Amino acid sequence: MARPNTVAGPSQTQAAYEVKHKDDPQLQNLKELRKTCGLKNVPVGDALQSLKSMSSDGKLTREQFLGAYTLLLQKFDIEVPSDDVKNAVFDLFDRDDNGVVDMMELICGASLLCTGTEEDKIHAVFDVFDENGDGVISMDEMFKFLTSVFKVVLTPNVMSVMNSMGVAVESPEDLASVTALECFKTADLNHDGRLSVQEFKSWFFAPRNDPSFLFSPVRKLLQ
User: Fold this and answer.
1) 10-217 domain in CATH 3.90.1300.10?
2) Would you say residue 116 has pLDDT above 50?
3) Which pLDDT value is given to residue 171?
4) Where are the domains of the chain?
5) Cβ-based burial of 131 (10 A; exposed 0-12, middle 13-18, buried ≥19)
6) CA 101 to CA 87: how far, in whole Å?
7) Residue 170 φ/ψ, nearest 5 degrees
8) What digits encode the pLDDT tens for the residues 125-177?
9) Cα(18)–Cα(39) distance, integer angstroms
10) What's the distance, Cα to Cα, between the start and end of the chain in Å?
């Protein structure tokens, strides 16, 4: 994992979002999709568990995803949108454009489009990762999740603003790498390379750690 020359602080990331999100076509498209896709009325935890249950080996093809998405909306008595909107939702989830949504992409997409507080989303993420019931997440999983999120919200416009502020971030992977490393350095108190939900929450909500790099700017963007 590459590390940027200059560490991008959360407050700097937040400033970049606030400067550019109003006139950033990519972020505006995301905001519009959230309005029309129906998922903003579905709790993030329910969405993740429902979509995960319809997957095969932790993956959903476009056909499987669209079917699971439709059933999820019907479960909550939400009007199913047009095929164009449904396909746009799949394209948002499918960050690497390989025609399949994996669990990491599923978590990212649900965190962006579904309703829930920061704490709701933290628990939803850990619940999906917690296959063995041990309630932990590895640094690699954290890095992959953050990369998926930043691929959506760290647009070329936002990255340009950050670079103009002297923050040398070349890619979503760069920012995800720094963030994951800093998180584990501070929060992994027993140094086992894994974080429990309590360890992560203690770090995330600590006054000295501005969590805006993760959920707050996304929530602000989608309000």
Assistant:
1) no
2) yes
3) 84
4) 10-217
5) exposed
6) 12
7) -95, -20
8) 777 766 556 678 888 888 887 787 777 777 777 777 777 777 677 888 888 88
9) 24
10) 33
